[in-house]
Amino acid sequence: MIASTSQQSQTPASATPTITKTLHHQIVFIGGGSAGLTTASMLLKKNKSLDIAIIEPSHKQYYQPGWTMTGGGVFQIEDTVRDKKDFIPRQATWIADRVVKLDPDRNAVATKEGILVEYDYLIVCPGIQLDWHLIKGLKDAIGKNGVTSNYAPNYAPYTWELIKNFPGGNALFTFPNTPVKCGGAPQKVMYMADDTFRKLGVRDRTNVMFLTPATKMFAVPEYSAILDKVVAERGIDVKFRHNLKEIKGETKEAVFDVFDDSGAVVDEFTHKYDMIHVAPPQSAPDFIKQSPLAVSGSAYGWVDVDKYTLQHNRYPNIFSLGDASSLPTSKTAAAARKQAAIVAENLLAFIASQPLLHKYDGYTCCPLITGYGKTIMAEFDGYNGTVVSSFPLNPVKERWIMWMMKTTGLPWIYWNRMLKGEQFEGDYIKFMQWRQ
Ligand SMILES: Cc1cc2nc3c(=O)[nH]c(=O)nc-3n(C[C@H](O)[C@H](O)[C@H](O)COP(=O)(O)OP(=O)(O)OC[C@H]3O[C@@H](n4cnc5c(N)ncnc54)[C@H](O)[C@@H]3O)c2cc1C
């Protein structure tokens, strides 16, 4: 492993840096996060002689699902982070820098520090961008005076501070008007908060509200129905068709657009908060949006790939997976793991001039914590919205064993198996998996 250095200069994503060095690698990854590390490890398990470079600026690797547990007081934030160097495969070259420009017509990318990296094949997985700026007042308000979010490691511990010291009042939880990573995360924290408020004895003087632009609790009808029961039993006030557009930090007010069934804004709703957990709007990173790789005409700017083969729709030597890709399924690490296996197989086939026979089926999983000791292991096929399970148990049920899986099993699997490119555990027990 060769690591080049990364410095913190302020080259904007759209500026073309002055090139001071040119490198060439057979396979180049943009992003060595959940998707990138898993795919690179899988490729090298299949063929150790591949020449792989991973362009990745961060020296930390986060287990992001753990931020929900941090916000709920189950994990410390330190439990969710490890050194990146320990997860970059030994045979790969790590370029510790940030891609700022893509030039797919010349098979090259440019980094912030002025390195031009040429490739034969490119795998694009730089994750998702958190667009805090799209909610007026949020950037100034967040991290203090009751405004928080589990979507960033610097705020997740503050979520728990707010919950465990809550004296009663209005506790608001919001969902944005864009696709997000882990669609369940904005409500998981709410159920843990609700449990804690009961334990503290403040729930009877607390108004717990979930405000979302959606018209149901979850995309898959079976999981949505069970969540309807959960919110009803807990006395949570759910407001559909409500999109957070402004935080007024000084008066502690949240302002929402209210939609009708056609999606037109018909009203404005302002509510006081004593604490508010915000899931920010999200999109592809700007350098992807501004590149020829993005889906044309889409404001989100996802990398435009075939939903089955994960190959780019216009540049056949480019593949994409994970949160930055256009794959029309729920964006999760669980989905990225299944996608990684498809990219590894199809890229090797493409290199060998063989047809791309491996197809991604839209699998994803969002373990829905519905309280301490309770989780619905919401696995589903995101392309058809149907319930699936990797376990011999009906997943449409709150279970203690799935809480144990969520808090103990899955983090272990992530660090010790997924990022190392090991096979999906469910494959070993296919014969006994629950079927609808
Ligand atoms: C609060 C929360 C809860 C979640 N809960 C779950 C859950 O329960 N289950 C689940 O499966 N998933 C969950 N997720 C989602 C999961 O973490 C992501 O879907 C997953 O990490 C996506 O992998 P990725 O590789 O696409 O992106 P990431 O893992 O975010 O990795 C992207 C990498 O690209 C790098 N990068 C960014 N820009 C550049 C650039 N310009 N050049 C080079 N590299 C770049 C970044 O540094 C990063 O390392 C949760 C996420 C959050 C925030």
From TrEMBL:
Domain FAD/NAD(P)-binding: 26-340
Glycoprotein found in the keyword field: no
GO molecular function: FAD binding; quinone binding; sulfide:quinone oxidoreductase activity
Alphabetical list of SUPFAM superfamilies matching this protein: FAD/NAD(P)-binding domain
Cofactor(s) annotated in UniProt: FAD
InterPro entries: FAD/NAD-bd_sf, FAD/NAD-binding_dom, Sulphide_quinone_reductase
Keyword Transit peptide: yes
Keyword terms, alphabetized: FAD, Flavoprotein, Oxidoreductase, Quinone, Transit peptide
Segments traversing the membrane: none
GO biological process, one term: sulfide oxidation, using sulfide:quinone oxidoreductase
PANTHER family: SULFIDE:QUINONE OXIDOREDUCTASE (PTHR10632), SULFIDE:QUINONE OXIDOREDUCTASE, MITOCHONDRIAL (PTHR10632:SF2)
Protein name: NAD(P)/FAD-dependent oxidoreductase
The organism of origin for this protein: Aerosakkonema funiforme FACHB-1375
